Amino acid sequence: MQVWEFEEGKRYLVRVDRGEDLMEAVRTVAADKGIEAGRVTGIGALADAELGYFDVETKEYSRGRLPGSWELLSLVGNISLRDGRVQPHLHVLLGNAKLECRGGHLFSGTVSVTGEIFIDRLPGTLRREVDPEVRLPLLAR
Amino acid sequence: MQVWEFEEGKRYLVRVDRGEDLMEAVRTVAADKGIEAGRVTGIGALADAELGYFDVETKEYSRGRLPGSWELLSLVGNISLRDGRVQPHLHVLLGNAKLECRGGHLFSGTVSVTGEIFIDRLPGTLRREVDPEVRLPLLAR
Amino acid sequence: MQVWEFEEGKRYLVRVDRGEDLMEAVRTVAADKGIEAGRVTGIGALADAELGYFDVETKEYSRGRLPGSWELLSLVGNISLRDGRVQPHLHVLLGNAKLECRGGHLFSGTVSVTGEIFIDRLPGTLRREVDPEVRLPLLAR
């Protein structure tokens, strides 16, 4: 992993390297740089991603794993704190050799070629708390 | 809906809540905050979205509705004024439990879990005018 | 093509017009404005896009062409220099009239309705160098 810093820490570009977990890379940079509120966007390639879909009836994520390497066509998300710990919330879209797409809430995935991820630091801290109705950690004041 | 303001109104994070229309939420925040030029990105979950595809032959949108709740994998777009009124232009990608994706130009959609939407304010005003050839409101000076 | 400049060149909005190549438009704006490090996001509509998927075994891109006009649902990427020349690295997701999606690494594509593309300038210069293992130009110091 290599990190470029811009404008005195207002923005970072992270080159995530082959074999590194994308979620962990974002979490590590945020923790190292003290980012407690942030925005994340990026592209790259991802292997063996575990993605989720939240079922509003059961209030649970169904999970699926996508074997092999996929283009990371879009990574969009944010960074906040949950119970004082950095919590990236990232959604991804992946593409295969037929240009077909799959996507979901990112649980894990290994960078297979490179990841080129921007992280913007927002001033202050964003927090999450489990919402009793939705049973998910939502952004909270 | 809850709104976080950063850097004296240069950027907002909007938590759109279950049951709220996503287009209307973006429009409302922009109108309330006086955002006449902006950039929008975000994630979340969306139900019963009505999406469009612009047919360059007929010069009309074909529309489709996606029943049920989908992960909002990507929301990308902008804010401008049309006839003096805030006009969000938003494209979305949605994912289901099989991790399959659908997407289009967003006409409407109800947040089903949460929406986490960033809005950047740009200085000044962006305007749209209907282009006589394309027959769509394009960004104009 | 029309270009709006914000905050003394820190950010641009580019309206790419029907018939213009999207890659070339981004490259041209970056070269004209001296952007040697940047972030790109956008939406629009794209015809006859040539997209790629990088095969980690053969270390080559497989390419596919998508005939006709598609909604440009998401454009995410960055700008750097390779051998001193502006090199956009852009991934796209496209949607058709059935709201089906395809996507990949963008090689070329002609704007079919409009393109609404944001380019953020980052201070300094980002460079790429071919990585001997991956055999692709990765971000490098």
What can you tell me about this protein's structure?
The structure is a homotrimer. By secondary structure, chain A is mainly beta. Chain A has a single domain (about 1-140), classed as 60s Ribosomal Protein L30, Chain: A (2-Layer Sandwich). Chain A is built from 1 helix and 8 strands, in the order E-E-H-E-E-E-E-E-E. The first copy, chain A, has one helix spanning about 20-35; strands at about 1-5, 10-15, 40-55, 60-80, 85-95, 100-120, 125-130, 135-140. In chain A, strands 1, 2, 3, 4, 5, 6, 7 and 8 form an 8-stranded mixed β-sheet that branches. The N and C termini of chain A lie far apart (about 35 Å). The model of chain A has no long low-confidence stretch (mean pLDDT about 95). Chains in contact: A-B, A-C, B-C. The interface of A and C includes residues 15, 18, 74 and 99 of A.
Biggest sheet statistics of chain A = 8 strands, mixed
Radius of gyration of chain A (Å): 15 Å
Tell me the structural class of chain A: mainly beta
Query: Which stretches of chain A are low in confidence, meaning pLDDT under 50 for 5 or more residues running?
Result: none
**Chain pair sharing the greatest interface:** A-C, 33 and 37 residues
- How would the global form of chain A be characterised? flat
Number of domains of chain A: 1
CATH architectural category of chain A: 2-Layer Sandwich
Tally of DSSP helical segments of chain A: 1
